[in-house]
TrEMBL record:
<dbReference type="InterPro" id="IPR036927">
    <property type="entry name" value="Cyt_c_oxase-like_su1_sf"/>
</dbReference>
<feature type="transmembrane region" description="Helical">
    <location>
        <begin position="339"/>
        <end position="361"/>
    </location>
</feature>
<feature type="transmembrane region" description="Helical">
    <location>
        <begin position="381"/>
        <end position="400"/>
    </location>
</feature>
<dbReference type="Pfam" id="PF00115">
    <property type="entry name" value="COX1"/>
</dbReference>
<comment type="similarity">
    <text>Belongs to the heme-copper respiratory oxidase family.</text>
</comment>
<protein>
    <submittedName>
        <fullName>Cytochrome c oxidase, subunit I</fullName>
    </submittedName>
</protein>
<feature type="transmembrane region" description="Helical">
    <location>
        <begin position="302"/>
        <end position="319"/>
    </location>
</feature>
<keyword id="KW-0408">Iron</keyword>
<dbReference type="GO" id="GO:0004129">
    <property type="term" value="F:cytochrome-c oxidase activity"/>
</dbReference>
<keyword id="KW-0813">Transport</keyword>
<keyword id="KW-0479">Metal-binding</keyword>
<dbReference type="GO" id="GO:0015990">
    <property type="term" value="P:electron transport coupled proton transport"/>
</dbReference>
<feature type="transmembrane region" description="Helical">
    <location>
        <begin position="430"/>
        <end position="452"/>
    </location>
</feature>
<keyword id="KW-0472">Membrane</keyword>
<keyword id="KW-0679">Respiratory chain</keyword>
<dbReference type="GO" id="GO:0022904">
    <property type="term" value="P:respiratory electron transport chain"/>
</dbReference>
<keyword id="KW-0812">Transmembrane</keyword>
Length: 464
């Protein structure tokens, strides 16, 4: 006779609320720096300068919001898919507290100007050690629970969690090897083009294994749960998984096209970037075909809109990204605001949509309640959708204009515009970006309110 499994949801809730907190903080900082882009007078102190706040924004949302959301959903999925409680629940709780302490210290250090200057790896060496420690705490629970699992069949979401756990450990440690010179300053062990190559091997893949791989784990788990439909093809999901993991790690140098990096490395990155379209769209097709014959759920099931919009933006993202890696296209768009729009279509349209829907399913289930207001969830969806589309479109158009102005020449070969001409011409797009970000942020505030009111209800039996 099978014993009833008692799952540990305390840490799941803790990371969920941590994700919500860092999401709000990160977006507030983002709105401030978006305002600074067309009102530079807001740089009133070094602590509020664009250079410092931008890295607070990216780290606060990348490490604070996204990772906390990933940890919350991973601890939930890990238990449910293995039919086993966490192997080390006290370690998981310590992980929660230590994680938030490191993120807070990291944000304060960046506010104070302590910065390695490496993209997505700006944290100085003492904070890096803290990141490695909380990652090891997470990994111990992941593999400990998998080893003790009662369910021997491993669903695709578990494979994505394993890939994230292993890949991020390797990426973070290799790229952040540094020599401390003081308590608050260090220098990388790499130099020159080799430093750039390692940095963007890390930079592209840390995005992939935080913003893609674990979010796909959520998508593959919560879409079938929310719809009551089996995933269209588990075989397709496995093929896509292995192809994605093989290809992703070779693509980082597409950030360094037309640079002193050896041309063969650039070409390898470009080729694998184009190859990446196939496994990425394997998951898109899998999501769409899961709903075949049941597309009426787009109207009747509020969660489905989030998942399908999210996977659609993922698909668009994984078309746009590889195409930007082509030399001719890269020569025009690199360093322009087009790239900013590209990144935010992924973070706002893919990551935040999927995390929102996952939380809407997960939180009522672990608190034995039902969602407070489906109407508010629908309003949130449309605010996020409208805000994200306007935001990214504004940056794409700005990027096209920016690239054209940078390359425009007079008949004698001199540049037609100076750098300040380009900056001034982009102010209308920056103002539109701020307005769109505000719309998106209002949607997030509704999300937070809906979750808070959900858990404040009297417990009721929710669907398992």
């Amino acid at each position: 006779m099978n014993e009833a499994v008692v799952y540990n949801y305390k840490t799941v809730r803790g990371f969920a609320w941590s994700a919500v907190f860092w999401l709000v903080i990160g977006l507030l900082v983002g709105l401030w720096i978006a305002f600074e882009m067309f009102n530079p007078a807001l740089n009133i102190t070094p602590w509020l300068s664009f250079g410092r706040l931008r890295v607070v924004h990216t780290n606060g949302l990348g490490l604070g919001f996204a990772l906390a959301g990933v940890f919350s959903a991973s601890y939930y999925m890990l238990q449910r898919l293995t039919r086993s409680p966490l192997a080390f629940p006290r370690l998981a709780q310590a992980h929660l507290y230590f994680f938030n302490a490191i993120i807070a210290l990291g944000a304060l250090s960046l506010f104070a100007g302590m910065n390695t200057t490496k993209e997505y790896a700006e944290l100085e060496w003492p904070i890096d050690i803290g990141v490695v420690i909380f990652w090891v705490m997470f990994a111990v629970n992941v593999f400990g629970t998998l080893i003790k699992r009662r369910e021997k069949q491993m669903y695709i979401s578990l494979w994505y969690i394993i890939a994230m756990t292993v890949a991020i450990a390797i990426l973070y440690i290799v790229n952040n090897l540094e020599i401390p010179v003081t308590l608050f300053k260090s220098y990388t062990v790499y130099s020159g083009a080799n430093d750039a190559n390692v940095e963007w091997w890390y930079g592209h893949n840390i995005v992939g294994f935080v913003f893609t791989v674990p979010i796909l784990a959520m998508f593959y788990y919560f879409l079938p749960k929310a719809t009551g439909l089996p995933i269209y093809s588990h075989r397709l999901s496995i093929v896509s998984f292995w192809a994605l993991n093989f290809a992703y790690l070779w693509t980082g140098a597409h950030h360094l096209m037309l640079t002193p990096l050896p041309e063969w490395i650039q070409t390898v990155a470009m080729a694998f970037s184009i190859f990446m379209i196939a496994p990425s769209w394997g998951s898109v097709v899998n999501g769409y075909y899961t709903l075949q014959g049941n597309w009426d759920q787009m109207r009747s099931n509020y969660l489905v809109k989030f998942f399908i919009a999210g996977i659609t933006f993922y698909g668009l993202q994984t078309l746009q990204g590889p195409l930007q890696g082509l030399r001719t296209i890269n020569a025009f768009f690199h360093y322009t605001d087009w790239v900013v729009g590209h990144v935010h279509m992924g973070t706002m349209g893919w990551v935040t949509m999927i995390v929102s829907a996952s939380f809407y399913y997960m939180i009522p289930n672990i608190t034995n309640t039902v969602i407070y207001s489906i109407k508010l969830a629908n309003i949130q969806f449309w605010l996020m959708m409208v805000g994200q589309v306007i935001w990214t479109s504004a940056m794409w158009i700005a990027g096209i204009q920016q690239g054209a102005m940078w390359k425009a020449t007079n008949p004698d070969g001199s540049l037609m515009y100076n750098f300040l001409d380009t900056v001034a011409s982009l102010y209308p797009y920056y103002q539109l970006r701020f307005a769109a970000g505000l719309i998106f942020f209002i949607g997030i505030l509704i999300f937070v309110w809906n979750l808070v009111m959900t858990v404040r209800q009297e417990p009721r039996q929710a669907e398992a």
